[in-house]
Amino acid sequence: MRRISRITVAGAATASLALALAACGSTSTSGSSDSKGNKGLAIAYDVGGKGDQSFNDAAYAGLEQAQKEFGYETADVEPTEGETDADKEQRLVSLAKQGYNPVIGVGYAYAAAVKGAAEKFPKTTFGIVDDATINTKNVADLVFNEEQASYLAGVAAARSTKSKVVGFVGGVDIPLIHKFQAGFEQGVKDTDPKVKVLSQYLTQTAEEGGFSSPDKGKSAAEGQIEKKADVVYAAAGLSGQGVIEAAATSKVWAIGVDSDQYQQAALAKYKDFILTSAMKDVAKAVYNLAKSVEDGKPETGIVRGDLKTGEVGLSNSNPKFADDAELQEAIKTAKEKIISGEIKVKSS
What we know:
BMP_lipoprotein, lipoprotein, cell membrane, Rossmann fold, disordered N terminus, PnrA-like, membrane, alpha/beta
């Protein structure tokens, strides 16, 4: 196990890291390091970066928990616009060179970069969130059954709609987001076949801003609301903030994603219109990988979170949602059937 004391980081060490990473994204560090230079968890953000109130912020919450518990130095690095796989790999390599372990790429876009960096630093544990394609012995693929949480979101939407029209807004038209759509639509239809689901993707690629453009999310949601949708579910990263804003402005329900968006400070003025959030516990997955390294037994291979493990599910922060006994019973029943295998949720 690696245990190190809380010694203030020397300014030279922080400057060294900043210089090493200046070419491939801005960085923040926190905590302390020992005399050998051993450091702890580092994460490299996906599109949208810190402050998306969703996916990336959930990863940062895991980093904060690890830093607090293990008392070591951590780093989190922002993406840059128009970056290549080579840029991402350079970012991860720079972190590994500095002695960070584990190093996690937050998002499927890091697949090639994580594979390349892991091969160059076989003694460092790497992780990637939302990708299961890397077959390297020192890499943990942190993946989730998002479709299961989305099914429950569909149940909530179908039981909450008055217009019998609900909406789904996906950030980018890719297989990962298809899982959210498929689960949501199945949950809606299994609950009430008469409810119509309007589905829309913001962009074909992440480079076009599908995960990082609240204005695109707002416009898409407004279009669905004009077509009578009174519950709108967004799986769109930072763009989802625009969906939530549009829902609140029109006084209809929004369903958040990844983090409990009812609790996000940046969304506080809209929270009365956030019914629930379909969460996946990225924070827990990130923390668990850090803990496994700290304990000397690094996780590797596919590490999956689902309803059974408690790493996906719905938030209960909004009292109007939590106190609706019939709705809660319907969700509980659906959850039990998914866990038992009676309900098999589609992923595409």
